Amino acid sequence: MTTKATWQWDESVAINKDFGDRSVVAAYDEAHRRFRDVDGENAAILARLNLPPEAVVGDFGCGTGAFARLAARRCQTVYAVDMSAAMLDFVQWKAQEEGLANVVCRQGGFLTYVHDGPPFDAIHSSLALHHLPDFWKQKALDRLAGWLKPGGKFHLMDVVFQTENVDVNVEAWIADTAAKGGAEVGDSIRGHVAREFSTYAWIMAGLLERAGFRIDSADSQGGILANYWCTKA
Ligand SMILES: C[S@@+](CC[C@H](N)C(=O)[O-])C[C@H]1O[C@@H](n2cnc3c(N)ncnc32)[C@H](O)[C@@H]1O
């Protein structure tokens, strides 16, 4: 869909936190680092993607750009795409501070971003697609697939629920993140489950396949945090 339909999902409603300025974004970054090994995760993802130096990469829902900035050290160009202007301001500032001139910051959403650069060799998205209801996740995945080269790689990391023991797993996840990150982080995870649009693994697999991705492998930590390693068929 290129022109906005009257029934188009408003992606801005999904941003339920006030990323008003750089200090708020920095605090958000610091909070995530209390319960996630962000740099370790990203280094492992890049090692597995094994991209050549000439690769063009997209990071959708890039947040503070930790993945985009690490990828920019190894690849030709990285497009860091996010709905939030404050997030992108932080990414641009950090990229400049780190001497990275190949991070292209673009404000836009999965459903509204217009890609006018070369096709991507790889796209990565972590903890962002769940902001869309399933109907719109399909449209977002269709769009991502359209911007990838044939044979291009797609890595998705997000909260995706395994059906078995889901209530027990959610409780364990809240307890674990609260223990690592503090009560505020536990509350934000509760809010995620209650109000955001994380879906079931059997639905996510169907959405990916219908978008034209082959799922090369998938894993799940605690029945909650999923990684999908895909190739554009
Ligand atoms: C939980 S953060 C994850 C950031 C980063 N990818 C990470 O793993 O730390 C979710 C990000 O998705 C962005 N976002 C929310 N809805 C979006 C949409 N429809 N399209 C693109 N980005 C979106 C938010 O602004 C936020 O930066």
Describe the 3D structure:
By secondary structure, the protein is α/β, with parallel strands linked by helices. The protein has one domain (11-232): Vaccinia Virus protein VP39 (Rossmann fold, 3-Layer(aba) Sandwich). Helices cover 42% and strands 22% of the residues. It contains eight helices and seven strands. The protein has helices spanning 22-35, 38-49, 66-72, 85-97, 134-147, 166-181, 183-195, 201-210, and strands spanning 56-60, 77-82, 103-107, 120-126, 148-159, 213-221, 225-232. It has a seven-stranded mixed beta sheet, sandwiched between helices. Helix 4 (85-97) links the parallel strand 2 (77-82) and strand 3. Helix 1 (22-35) packs across helix 6 (166-181), helix 2 (38-49) crosses helix 3 and helix 6 packs antiparallel against helix 7. The protein is globular, with a radius of gyration of 17 Å. The structure holds S-adenosylmethionine.
Unreliable residue runs: none
Strand order of the largest sheet: 3-2-1-4-5-7-6
- What's the order of the H and E elements? HHEHEHEEHEHHHEE
Overall geometry comes to: globular
Primary descriptors:
about 230 residues, alpha/beta, Rossmann fold, 7-stranded mixed β-sheet, 8 helices, about 40% helix, binds S-adenosylmethionine
Helix and strand layout, with pairings?
Blueprint: H1 22-35, H2 38-49, E1 56-60, H3 66-72, E2 77-82, H4 85-97, E3 103-107, E4 120-126, H5 134-147, E5 148-159, H6 166-181, H7 183-195, H8 201-210, E6 213-221, E7 225-232
Parallel strand pairs: 1-2, 1-4, 2-3, 4-5
Antiparallel strand pairs: 5-7, 6-7
Helix pairs in contact: 1-6, 2-3, 5-8, 6-7
Bound molecules: S-adenosylmethionine.
